[in-house]
Design brief:
Elements (H helix, E strand, L loop, with lengths): L4 E6 L3 H4 L6 E5 L14 H16 L7 E4 L4 H14 L9 E3 L1 E6 L2 E6 L10 E9 L3 H11 L4 E10 L4 H7 L4 E6 H10 L5 H13 L1
Parallel strand pairs: 3-4, 3-7, 7-8, 8-9
Antiparallel strand pairs: 1-2, 5-6
Length: 211
């Protein structure tokens, strides 16, 4: 998708806490040009992502009053979900509102926090939305931010699960994660379409299996 999936050697957020961790041989960049860390996506890409996530949500047992994008990658996805909810009857999921979170950056570290001045509601059931999950640190920050305001997180939905322990970490904390795709699905696609070599495919598989 428009250069959003790259192979090479990349640092991830997990390297902020563990700088000695092996570099990732792949990088998924699901962000747009207005993001502080600009990515390759455009508006119609987010509509496609929203379609995938709404299909995943429709097949789930989540019951929610609101959805929240995890800043900043999740925000344009939620905007696209809101648009499809309003204008495409095929993807209506009932009534829900959009709530917002913020990202605080201090001393080179990033943290998800409640958005100052936003009207949160006690006992409101919130479904969190993001582009992908790796180790779940950001997801747990977002959960704490929402629940610190008296709301209840019912689960997390992402487009891609990198399959590096994030799902298990969320489940241990008592939260369900659903993903539209796994990173192995993407590896298989790139290998079967001969966009990557068998060597690069195996390198990516080994990294995910060992990290």
């Amino acid at each position: 998708m428009r250069g959003a999936f790259k192979f090479g050697a990349f640092k991830l957020k997990l390297h902020e806490k563990n700088p000695g961790a092996p570099l990732s041989p792949f990088f998924i960049h699901l962000r747009n040009k207005t993001n502080p860390k600009p990515g390759p996506l455009i508006e119609k890409d987010y509509l496609l992502i929203a379609k995938c996530l709404l299909e995943t949500i429709s097949q789930s047992d989540f019951v929610f009053d609101a959805i929240a994008g995890i800043p900043r990658a999740g925000d344009p996805i939620v905007d696209a979900i809101q648009w499809m909810q309003e204008y495409d009857p095929k993807f209506q999921q009932g009534d829900f509102r959009i709530i917002r979170l913020a990202k605080e950056e201090k001393d080179g570290l990033r943290k998800i926090v409640p958005l100052p001045g936003f009207e949160y509601r006690k006992d409101e059931r919130v479904l969190l939305i993001d582009d992908l999950v790796t180790k779940a640190d950001t997801k747990l920050e977002a959960i704490r931010a929402v629940e610190s305001q008296g709301a209840i997180v019912v689960g997390v939905v992402v487009l891609v699960d990198r399959q590096q322990g994030g799902k298990n970490e969320l489940e241990k904390a008592g939260y369900k994660l659903l993903a539209s795709l796994t990173v192995r699905d993407l590896f298989n696609f790139y290998f079967q379409t001969e966009m990557i070599s068998a060597e690069k495919y195996q390198e990516a598989i080994n990294y995910v299996s060992n990290n």
